[in-house]
Amino acid sequence: MSVELDFEKCGGLIPAIAQDHQTNEVLMMAYINAESWAETLKSGYATYYSRSRKQLWKKGESSGHLQVIKSILVDCDCDTVIFKIEQLGPGACHTGHRSCFYRKVENGELVEVETAVFDAEKVYAK
């Protein structure tokens, strides 16, 4: 039996939430398509679909901050997944933070509530 996700409902992409498998901290949200889903299952590493680059995106391929799949949860409609992952390296966010959710809304403003854990300019220098 293979797991069939409903990629057609949302135009070929579905949300994939990356969550730390030990702490349950939400690290990021991205999208997957059928091809990235198959690659994730095959490789054991979180692979997403980059909407801006219009191509597969193996998280951590350039930074070394890979996401090892520990388990996968699928919602009741088969159109959203949670990747329970082990985050290799200090963080998941391209800004240098552990989580992409490092800001909160306070009095109508975005306030940074976590500090960066790595120097994004050095990690992503080309």
Q: What do these coordinates show?
A:
- The chain has 126 residues and is mainly beta.
- The chain contains two helices and eight strands; from the N terminus they run ββαββββββα.
- Strands 2-1-6-5 form a four-stranded mixed β-sheet. A two-stranded antiparallel sheet has the order 3-4. Strands 7-8 form a two-stranded antiparallel sheet.
- The N and C termini lie far apart (42 Å).
Helix percent reads 10-25%
User: Quick one: overall form?
Assistant: globular
Number of separate helices: 2
Number of strands: 8
What is the CA-CA span between the terminal residues? 42 Å
Mean pLDDT: 96
List the uncertain runs: none
Radius of gyration: 15 Å
Helices and strands, with pairings:
Elements: E1 14-20, E2 26-32, H1 34-43, E3 47-50, E4 55-58, E5 67-74, E6 81-87, E7 103-106, E8 109-112, H2 120-123
Parallel strand pairs: 1-6
Antiparallel strand pairs: 1-2, 3-4, 5-6, 7-8
Task: List the defining traits of the structure above.
126 residues, two-stranded antiparallel ribbon, 36% strand, 11% helix, mainly beta, 4-stranded mixed β-sheet
